[in-house]
Amino acid sequence: MKARSDLDPYGPPALEEILARSEGIMEVADDRGPVRTIFNGRRNRPVGLYPSVKCRRSIAWESRLERRTIRWLEVDDTVINYMEQPHRLRFLFRGQRTHYTPDFIVQTENRTVFVEVKYRSDIFKMRPEDRDRYRLARSIYRSIDRDLVFVTDLRFKMQKVWHENAQVVEESRRLLPSDDQLTIIIDHLVSRPRSTLGACAAAFGSPLHGQRSLMALMLRRVVRIDLNIPLGPDSAIELRKDYAANLHNLVAAKTVRHA
After folding, report:
1. Which of 121, 156, 191 is where one domain is finished?
2. CA neighbours within 13 Å on the CB side: how many for 201?
3. pTM above the 0.90 mark?
4. Contact 217, 169 (CB under 8 A)
5. What residues have CB less than 8 Å from 208, skipping those under 6 apart?
6. Which residues pair with 108 in a beta bridge?
7. pLDDT tens digit sequence for 54-100
8. b/e per residue, 218-246, with b = 16+ CB within 10 A?
9. On the CB side of 231, how many CA atoms lie within 13 Å of its CA?
10. Which of 22, 120, 129, 239 is least surrounded by CB atoms within 10 angstroms?
11. Is residue 1 in some structural domain?
């Protein structure tokens, strides 16, 4: 893809010149999955697999901050899909061959971005040459209309209420609402375009179980719940505009599961 003609945000030279010198090559796995596994038995830090409803596969994580990031990606209904370790970017940096592997690729409703997850303390300790290496990688990504963004622990502190609510919603990810429940909630929200969590749960006839079922539907991008205020009966809920397509995917998944 042809590079854009704008200047690199970190200053000259122009982006085309940066790309010509960097000789960037993006390597992906044959199965289009993660390019490497993290389970090699040699890392002295927490690792694990997250059973993702949104991605319909297990997502590997190798730090507690990555695990929290996965929760955010799983619950945020503007995120359509995501994957860890999506590719390996090989390029020239200061005359030497090097490579960079982003932690995640994230597809949202508006754009696709590559994500690097780091604690702020690690960023503060980063050497100048490492900062320049990230800047060059970002320039290469921007040449194909992508971006590299950093997610730090500050995000979870600044948006504390949202992420506390996300933890509650995440606990419902293994629930699979019945066909009757789906019919009830769709009918309720079609007739009331904007309702509350309590009112929708009451329509189920079970306030507690009903709320959990609604959270499960949010994870499947059928409904949208306002997580910016403490979660409760008065929390706003509405059908997503694309709920019909996502509902079709949910029904299809249930059919396969019971086949």
Report:
1. 156
2. 20
3. no
4. no
5. 201
6. 79
7. 998 999 999 999 999 999 999 999 999 999 999 989 888 888 888 99
8. bbbbbbbbbbeeebeeebebbbbeebeeb
9. 19
10. 129
11. no
Q: How far apart are CA 65 and CA 61, in angstroms?
A: 9
Residue 42 and residue 84 in one domain: yes
Tokens encoding 154:
């500050």
Q: Residue 162 pLDDT > 90, yes or no? A: yes
* Domains: count for the chain: 2
Longest dimension (CA), the chain: 67
Show the tokens assigned to 183: 């019919």
Token pair belonging to 110: 């508006």
Cβ atoms of 153 and 120 closer than 8 Å: yes
**What's the pLDDT tens digit per position in 204-257?**
777 667 889 899 999 999 999 999 999 999 999 999 888 877 776 666 555 445
Per-chain mean pLDDT for the chain: 82
Long-range contacts at 250-256 (CB < 8 A, ≥ 24 apart): 250/182, 250/220, 250/222, 251/179, 251/182, 253/56, 254/176
In this structure, are residues 91 and 136 in contact, taking their beta carbons and an 8 Å threshold? yes
**Paired tokens of 171:** 């606990």
- Residue 123: what residue type? I
